[in-house]
Design goal:
By secondary structure, this protein is α+β, with helices and mostly antiparallel strands. It has a single domain (4-85), classed as P-loop containing nucleotide triphosphate hydrolases (Rossmann fold, 3-Layer(aba) Sandwich). The chain is 20% helix and 37% strand. It contains 2 helices and 4 strands; from the N terminus they run ββαββα. Strands 2-1-3-4 form a 4-stranded antiparallel sheet, with helices on one face. The longest helix has 10 residues, at 76-85. The protein is globular. The two termini are 26 Å apart.
Length: 90
């Protein structure tokens, strides 16, 4: 099992009558200690992926597993603890 797994992740935003799809069926795995780079054109959803991995945002569908824990099922309190104890951004 990979240390980080994003499986079939979707994130959609509403803007008036329109729906903006930020992430459309994103899947990847990162092993512990592996260096990974997320790149793409402007508006491709890179920041959305990082915000979901960091527990600052949630996906609408799919799973986000960090060290075997599915953070996509976490409630607000669990996400706060996750951000406080398990993840950091530089």
């Amino acid at each position: 099992m990979a240390y980080i797994e994003m499986k079939n992740s979707y994130k959609r935003y509403k803007s008036g009558q329109s729906e903006i799809i930020a992430n459309n069926d994103i899947s990847f795995e990162i092993e512990k200690g592996e260096l990974a780079i997320i790149l793409g054109s402007s508006g491709a959803g890179k920041s959305t992926v990082l915000n979901i991995l960091g527990g600052m945002d949630t996906n609408d569908e799919g799973n986000v597993l960090i060290d075997g824990k599915d953070i996509s099922t976490f409630n607000e309190k669990e996400l706060t603890n996750y951000r406080r104890n398990d993840v950091g951004f530089v």
